[in-house]
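Worked Example 4.2. Consider the chain below.
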Amino acid sequence: MNLDRQNQALQTLISSIQPADAAAMTSARERQSQLTKPARALGLLEDLSVRLAGIFGSDRPHPRGVAVIVAAGDHGVVAEGVSAYPPEVTPAMVAGFTASTPYGTGGAAVNVIARTVGAKVYVADVGVNAELPAHPALESVKVRMGTRNLRVESAMTAEETLQAILAGSEMAGRAIVEGADLLIPGEMGIGNTTAASAITARMLGASVESVTGRGTGVDDATLERKRQVISDALNRDASQVGDPLGVLADLGGLEIAFMLGVMLRAASERRAIVLDGFVEGSAALVGVALAPNLQDYLFPAGECAETGHAAQLAHLGLTPLFNLGLRLGEGTGGVLAAPMLLSAAATLREMQTFAEASVPDRE
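Applying the procedure from the previous section yields the following structure tokens:
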């Protein structure tokens, strides 16, 4: 697909994202006020249920399947020594996502948690800097063997960026056809918090120090080097906040672009999107800048331990569901949040009203 056709496909996807159903949310709020509980007794779950009503167009929303789509990609910037782990970890972790274990496919944290809550795991190689063996649990949509070094040049071309976005959209579409109503973009890629910090600094106009954390747990010297690398990348002035796709191509990662595609497709199909952490948040910043209606479909899992995540959530107007100090990635936090969202929808859908239960209402 050439660049013009890629751009056209993306614009079609963006234009298909409609706002949440206001009438369904109004009806859901009215129903909430009649359920057998004191007003606001379910707290944030009530707000979540109303938002889900708006997404699914019903005051009795019934989301069912949960899918986490883990995109793997490498980053040329790791050559600058910004991570505590070598890039060889990325293909090794992909092997872990697809490994056969006594408990089922996959031995990584996201696999274990997904099995526990009944979520399906999809794994995509969008830019791992290694030739990975074919595996039935691995989708190969490799755009290139890792990104370029963002310190000295743009990480991706416009065409590569669009190719990764559209690959994410296609995989999200497959997950939806296979029953997913809650989609969780996840990622694996050594160096990706460097890219996410650079995107966040540019999109929010924030200082590098305020949005750059320790990622894989780097020491003080490496953290300072990481911040300098990001500053150098920003000082190239190769992208501006008014061109979100340009920012993504300049500073991002292939897996970040892929996750953006997952989000855009999910919203276009009126499905809920659960955001895991900081790297996913960087994709969401670009996504909402491109398609403001996307914001209606985003549900943050927890505030992760990575510096800058709180600023992302504040900009997006999202309240995290928990704070467990998570910073693993893979979509783990998003999978943990899925049962909360399903429960929120179930309370709105299945609880009796005071009239139905013949319970005296408050005066």
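Residues 118 and 187 are 19 Å apart (CA to CA). The mean pLDDT is 97. Compare this with Example 4.1 before moving on.
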